[in-house]
């Protein structure tokens, strides 16, 4: 069952990433599926406190940041929060920081090789990469 849940999360993260790359939107239906499966995962294998911490730890500061600066999309915040239900607080925060570093590295490389700097960046793929890597680490 755990393998099925983790595989579902992996597929949903890939779908979120593809949607974010193509349309710069993460569908609420995918986020709700991730949340629902995360709650099921929590009930079977985790703790409520760890999941609530994972939900709030990275998302709360980002919501405050979004209130004053629209630098991060609401879909990205929802995705980070729902992934936190799966991962718990510290792991979600660590993977969020890894995603930020990965995004910054890609943007710096893009800036070094082109004059074009994107107005918006799809963040879901950068979040999905470290999360998928951690899932694969757990699975194998």
TrEMBL record:
<dbReference type="InterPro" id="IPR000045">
    <property type="entry name" value="Prepilin_IV_endopep_pep"/>
</dbReference>
<keyword id="KW-1133">Transmembrane helix</keyword>
<dbReference type="GO" id="GO:0004190">
    <property type="term" value="F:aspartic-type endopeptidase activity"/>
</dbReference>
<dbReference type="Pfam" id="PF01478">
    <property type="entry name" value="Peptidase_A24"/>
</dbReference>
<dbReference type="InterPro" id="IPR050882">
    <property type="entry name" value="Prepilin_peptidase/N-MTase"/>
</dbReference>
<keyword id="KW-0812">Transmembrane</keyword>
<feature type="domain" description="Prepilin type IV endopeptidase peptidase">
    <location>
        <begin position="9"/>
        <end position="107"/>
    </location>
</feature>
<protein>
    <recommendedName>
        <fullName>Prepilin type IV endopeptidase peptidase domain-containing protein</fullName>
    </recommendedName>
</protein>
<dbReference type="GO" id="GO:0006465">
    <property type="term" value="P:signal peptide processing"/>
</dbReference>
<feature type="transmembrane region" description="Helical">
    <location>
        <begin position="29"/>
        <end position="56"/>
    </location>
</feature>
<feature type="transmembrane region" description="Helical">
    <location>
        <begin position="93"/>
        <end position="109"/>
    </location>
</feature>
<comment type="similarity">
    <text>Belongs to the peptidase A24 family.</text>
</comment>
<feature type="transmembrane region" description="Helical">
    <location>
        <begin position="121"/>
        <end position="139"/>
    </location>
</feature>
<dbReference type="GO" id="GO:0005886">
    <property type="term" value="C:plasma membrane"/>
</dbReference>
<keyword id="KW-0472">Membrane</keyword>
């Amino acid at each position: 069952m755990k393998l099925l849940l983790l595989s579902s999360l992996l597929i949903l993260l890939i779908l979120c990433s593809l949607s974010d790359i193509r349309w710069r939107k993460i569908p609420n239906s995918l986020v709700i599926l991730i949340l629902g499966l995360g709650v099921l995962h929590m009930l079977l294998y985790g703790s409520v406190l760890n999941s609530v911490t994972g939900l709030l730890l990275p998302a709360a500061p980002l919501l405050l940041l979004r209130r004053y600066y629209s630098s991060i999309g609401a879909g990205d915040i929802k995705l980070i929060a729902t992934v936190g239900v799966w991962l718990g607080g510290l792991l979600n925060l660590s993977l969020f920081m890894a995603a930020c570093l990965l995004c910054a590295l890609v943007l710096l490389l893009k800036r070094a090789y082109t004059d074009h700097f994107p107005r918006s960046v799809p963040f879901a793929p950068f979040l999905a990469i470290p999360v998928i890597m951690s899932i694969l680490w757990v699975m194998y």
